[in-house]
Amino acid sequence: MNKYVIGIDLxxxxxxYALIDEEGNFLFEGxxxxxxxxxxxxxxxxxxxxxxxxxxxxxxxxxxVSGIGLGTPGIVDATGRIVLGGAExxxxxxxxxxxxxLELATGLPTRLANDANLMGLGETMYGAGxxxxxxxxLTVGTxxxxxxxxxxxxxxxxGGRGTELGHVPLIANGxxxxxxxxxxxxxxxxxxALVRRFTQRSTETGRTYGGEEIxxxxxxxxxxxxxxxxxECLDEHCDYxxxxxxxxxxxFSPQRVVIGGGLSEAGSFYxxxxxxxxxxxxxxxxxxxxxxxxxxxxxxxxxxxxxxxVKQYV
Length: 314
Description:
By secondary structure, this protein is an alpha/beta fold. It folds into 2 domains: 4-122 and 300-313, 2-Layer Sandwich (Nucleotidyltransferase, domain 5); 131-295, 2-Layer Sandwich (Nucleotidyltransferase, domain 5). It is 39% helix and 21% strand. It has 9 helices and 12 strands. Helix 5 packs antiparallel against helix 7 and helix 6 (216-224) crosses helix 7.
């Protein structure tokens, strides 16, 4: 008998949700505003609304829903039931027994995990990491999130407080990071960091772009056109990120390093650059069995990882 699971990807802007079968097929999906700027109660209301919408659809098809998996920003406790904190983009999102709240509201078994962790799990189960047991996942965007899959299971450290891959110290006595430390990988190698450096150097040289917003897409377009400043900044970005990836390879020696986020979709040149830099800086014996590749699932990864989480525990 096929199992049907609700997978939810909660973000600061929206709630993405889907009914997913055992093969990873999306049978129903939707999106709602998360109301993260309002209150924790407002967010829970939106989550409940999403679940009710999916269960109503399942009922019309006489499909039984076996559980709910939810990816959330921040740190989730080791039981997969309580949001401890660390989600700056959702108001009041701390010390929250979210799994209990959703189970009381819906009657369905619920498991929680960090959103980036579940993106990595989704890519491992259904995407670029499929067929591998040991995968390191990085999503490069506004910040850098990540996940470590060991022997087919999420590794999150004691009490679920580990694998903050974007906050590995990269530069001693470096610039301040939003996390409160200095010199973090995220501060130097995120898309935000790339845009910040490109904007600063453009300003210094008096360059403008016809009123166009400076973002990763613009920088990639200019790079492909042979622009010297875009090439300089993108090479620097790949060098920083390549150092970080090399460090992770030396520690975990994964079968695959999967890179997600908007830049990973820019073309094979980006992954090729990261692969070259990471292999340059990693210990060769540690990297012997490691492939570096782009993520495949795009914005579906979070919901698919959430569904996989349910299958592990329900």
